């Protein structure tokens, strides 16, 4: 079976006790979050996450590890209208100098300081899926116009 799908990547770049977060400017997911973007037609998923991290953070990442998948309906809260799939990666191997992009400014944030920045609304649930080895999926299910997070 086929369906309309948008394919994207996010990556948690971490160093000791810090996460590299983007203060995202776009209104659809505004606030501190993980850098990422769309996979180009024909591009491998690994190549996409490496490219997106270079474009948005200035860093060249190595050995990104797939640690989960996020998905939600593209339109009107209904999966019949298409599915937005985000491949979730993590790495602590990188080199280069951090830069910001038109998507937003980049900041190293200590784990204990996460509650001091304006995180996107689903950040903690997303982080839990990425860091908990017993979880691998983050899905939004829309019921009665309310978007509910399901973790599996």
Question: Which helices and strands, and how do they pair?
Answer:
Layout: E1 5-15, E2 18-24, E3 31-33, E4 36-38, H1 45-57, E5 60-61, E6 65-75, E7 78-91, E8 94-95, E9 104-110, H2 123-131, E10 137-143, E11 146-151
Parallel strand pairs: 1-7, 6-10
Antiparallel strand pairs: 1-2, 1-4, 2-3, 2-9, 5-8, 6-7, 10-11
User: Biggest sheet, in brief?
Assistant: 9 strands, mixed
The H-and-E topology, N to C, reads as: EEEEHEEEEEHEE
The coarse overall form would be: globular
Poorly predicted spans? none
Number of helices: 2
Rounded mean pLDDT is 95
Relative helix content: 10-25%
Q: Compute the separation of the termini in Å.
A: 23 Å
Report the portion of residues in β strands: over 45%
The number of E-state strands comes to 11
What does this entry look like structurally?
This protein is mostly beta strands and 152 residues long. Strands 1, 2, 3, 4, 6, 7, 9, 10 and 11 form a nine-stranded mixed beta sheet that branches. The longest helix has 13 residues. The chain starts with a strand and ends with a strand. 25% of the residues are buried. The mean pLDDT is 95.
Gist of the model:
This protein is mainly beta and 152 residues long. 14% of the residues lie in helices and 48% in strands.
Q: Key terms for this structure?
A:
152 residues; two-stranded antiparallel ribbon; 48% strand; 2 helices; 9-stranded mixed sheet
